[in-house]
Design a protein that fits this description.
Blueprint (H helix, E strand, L loop, with lengths): L1 E12 L2 E12 L3 E5 L6 H8 L7 E6 L2 E6 L5 E3 L2 H8 L2 E4 L11 H11 L5 H14 L15 H13 L5 E5 L7 H16 L3 E5 L3 H6 L3 E6 L2 E6 L1 H6 L4 H10 L2
Parallel strand pairs: 3-9, 3-10, 7-8, 8-9
Antiparallel strand pairs: 1-2, 1-4, 4-5, 5-6, 10-11
């Protein structure tokens, strides 16, 4: 089953055309690594998928449900408010910056949205949150405030917080870009474990080792377009696109 179908996605900011006709298919259990130079539209694509940004043209279908479509008049029409939010909530999002609530403990960060947004039973959510903290190796940090955590720990909390909403898809926007190499390893291990559990993931990353070893498909973006996509072994050992060849020569030195 397709978890994400995006067709002809266009996104502009004033005169700047950031996405220029992106097509994306994500099957259940796939791990898609999106690579490319800065400014190629990778992060904007993720933000459009979960409606943090609205598109100018195109179609987005999540889990078989229509989130956005372009009408015959060229206007983009989104699903009605509550429906739109419910569909977008099928996707958990992990950002470059951890975006934790500084005035809340780790446990409070995890339970806030499931209780307040999804209106789930607080006691049940707390039990599930404790299990998730164990999953990311942070059981002992439940009552700690974010400022007392390392960057790697904060990012693992952010992953657990996204999982607490029970998404069927996880979106990662360069989750290790602000971490030093040692802390990067902590976060990538957690992401590898999610991949082994067949969580559907779309990962914008500059970690080529992760893209090569964990992804089931790699997408190379440049200038707001998908320039090449395929299996990691093909992308990294036999790239056909000249932009991709030049990019890999730069990042794999």
């Amino acid at each position: 089953m397709k978890k994400i179908e995006a067709r002809n996605i266009h996104k502009s900011f004033q005169e700047l055309n950031v996405l220029q006709g992106i097509d994306l298919d994500v099957e259940e259990g796939e791990v898609i690594a999106v690579i490319g130079p800065s400014g190629s539209g990778k992060s904007t694509l993720l933000r459009c998928l979960n409606k943090l940004e609205t598109i100018n043209r195109g179609t987005i279908i999540i889990d078989g449900e229509l989130l956005a479509d372009t009408s015959s008049t060229g206007e983009v029409v989104y699903a009605p408010g509550d429906e739109s939010r419910r569909i977008a909530c099928k996707m958990g999002m992990v950002f470059q910056q951890f975006n934790l609530f500084p005035h809340m403990t780790v446990l409070q960060n995890l339970i806030e949205a499931p209780v307040q947004v999804q209106k789930r039973d607080r006691a049940q959510v707390i039990e599930e949150a404790k299990i998730l903290l164990g999953k990311v190796g942070l059981s002992e940090k439940a009552d700690v405030y974010p400022r007392k955590l390392s960057g790697g720990q904060q990012q693992r909390v952010a992953i657990a917080r996204a999982l607490a909403m029970k998404p069927s898809i996880m979106l990662f926007d360069e989750p290790t870009s602000s971490l030093d190499p040692e802390l990067t390893g902590e976060v990538l291990r957690t992401m590898r474990e999610l991949a082994e559990e067949k969580m559907t993931m779309v990962v914008v990353t500059h970690e080529m080792g992760f893209a090569r070893e964990v992804a089931t498909k790699v997408i190379f973006m440049a200038d707001g377009r998908v320039q090449e996509q395929g299996r990691p072994e093909d992308i990294f050992t036999n790239p056909k696109n000249e932009r991709l060849q030049a990019f890999l020569q730069t990042v794999l030195k």
